[in-house]
């Protein structure tokens, strides 16, 4: 459906689209993934328990009715489950452990299978917190950092599943980034309010790692909201049980949107609290507006910011547009914002909406690549 449309990857893993099946303990195994997530770009199996401590906690949880994956041979179980996914989706395995060594062994296995290891720093059951697992890792950042560094020594592609609004999200994102992880999977839960989209924006402006946004995605409109805050991918879990076609519908929505505008997760404008990538859509910095605060966080002066954008535009179709507000398409806004002047230029030079937005996406990357202060160090 969309295998060649999206350029999405993390390390040695490529994703055919930006929709994922999220893990649910005791529920999301290969059979569940094959039934509900045949179109997904990524399926995250688990959570799987790896050591004696995590098994004991899981057994306690099952005694009060919670579903869990429990096995005397967890690594063999993981290997079978990875190999049993038949959808062609990339596969990740969400794991828990009270100790580091089983995580290292799981990482080695998962890497051999060409899959992703996902460290569970997310579950919040009291028994897990007492054992130092799940969300407890967020409250012990030195241990979390040390574990990430040790796991990454295996060469595995590593995702860290976190819950937003537990600790300082900016500090957490930067720590995960600097420790060497590849992906941050963010449950943007805001108790009683559904998804906290501002939390996704905070993660996006704190790191350039691959971000998976999770929570309350029940249709493409919700997915698009999360994309526009900086998620590279969105994941769904229980929604698939309520709507077995949910992942298919989300993939179709993302595919259609990508085909039409060329940048499926284009940010909101800076003046609408867009993330750093939105600097690609900003005007020449001559008026009083939020653009000044945004580029300054990346270490640019107004002159340096303007020069950087013009350097990128040179030799591209963004050079054109003498009749636009600032004499070049490089200063023009997002294609979804109506502008007859911009659209007239695009029509004259034969540049489609999608081609224009793809250039803007490259411009955003160029601005970030040339920042004096890297994203993960910006204020």
TrEMBL record:
<feature type="domain" description="DUS-like FMN-binding">
    <location>
        <begin position="85"/>
        <end position="251"/>
    </location>
</feature>
<dbReference type="InterPro" id="IPR035587">
    <property type="entry name" value="DUS-like_FMN-bd"/>
</dbReference>
<dbReference type="Pfam" id="PF01207">
    <property type="entry name" value="Dus"/>
</dbReference>
<dbReference type="InterPro" id="IPR013785">
    <property type="entry name" value="Aldolase_TIM"/>
</dbReference>
<protein>
    <submittedName>
        <fullName>Methanogenesis marker 9 domain-containing protein</fullName>
    </submittedName>
</protein>
<dbReference type="InterPro" id="IPR037347">
    <property type="entry name" value="MJ0144_FMN"/>
</dbReference>
<dbReference type="InterPro" id="IPR017671">
    <property type="entry name" value="Methan_mark_9"/>
</dbReference>
């Amino acid at each position: 459906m969309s295998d060649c449309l999206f350029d999405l990857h993390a390390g040695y893993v490529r994703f055919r689209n930006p929709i994922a099946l999220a893990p649910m303990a005791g529920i999301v195994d290969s059979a569940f993934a094959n039934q509900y997530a045949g179109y997904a770009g990524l399926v995250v199996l688990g959570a799987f328990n790896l050591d004696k401590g995590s098994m004991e906690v899981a057994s306690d949880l099952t005694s009060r009715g919670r579903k869990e994956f429990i096995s005397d041979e967890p690594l063999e179980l993981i290997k079978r489950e990875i190999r049993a996914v038949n959808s062609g989706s990339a596969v990740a395995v969400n794991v828990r452990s009270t100790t580091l060594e089983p995580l290292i062994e799981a990482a080695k296995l998962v890497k051999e299978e060409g899959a992703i290891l996902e460290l569970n720093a997310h579950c919040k059951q009291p028994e897990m917190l007492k054992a130092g697992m799940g969300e407890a890792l967020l409250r012990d950042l030195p241990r979390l950092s040390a574990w990430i560094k040790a796991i990454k020594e295996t060469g595995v592609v590593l995702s860290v599943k976190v819950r937003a609004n537990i600790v300082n999200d900016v500090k957490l994102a930067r720590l995960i980034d600097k420790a060497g992880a590849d992906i941050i999977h963010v449950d943007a839960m805001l108790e009683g309010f559904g998804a906290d989209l501002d939390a996704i924006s905070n993660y996006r402006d704190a790191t350039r790692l691959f971000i998976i946004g999770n929570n309350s995605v029940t249709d493409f409109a919700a997915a698009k909201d999360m994309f526009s805050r900086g998620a590279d991918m969105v994941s769904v879990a229980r929604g698939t049980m309520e709507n077995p076609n949910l992942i298919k519908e989300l993939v179709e929505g993302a595919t259609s949107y990508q085909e039409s505008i060329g940048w499926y997760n284009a940010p909101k404008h800076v003046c609408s609290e867009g993330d750093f990538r939105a600097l690609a859509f900003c005007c020449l910095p001559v008026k009083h507006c939020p653009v000044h605060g945004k580029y300054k966080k990346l270490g640019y002066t107004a002159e340096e910011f303007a020069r950087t954008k013009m350097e990128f535009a040179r030799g591209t179709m963004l050079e054109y547009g003498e009749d636009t507000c600032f004499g070049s398409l490089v200063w023009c806004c997002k294609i979804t914002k109506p502008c007859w002047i911009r659209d007239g230029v695009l029509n004259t030079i034969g540049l489609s909406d999608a081609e224009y937005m793809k250039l803007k996406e490259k411009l955003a990357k160029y601005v970030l690549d040339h920042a004096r202060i890297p994203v993960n160090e910006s204020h």
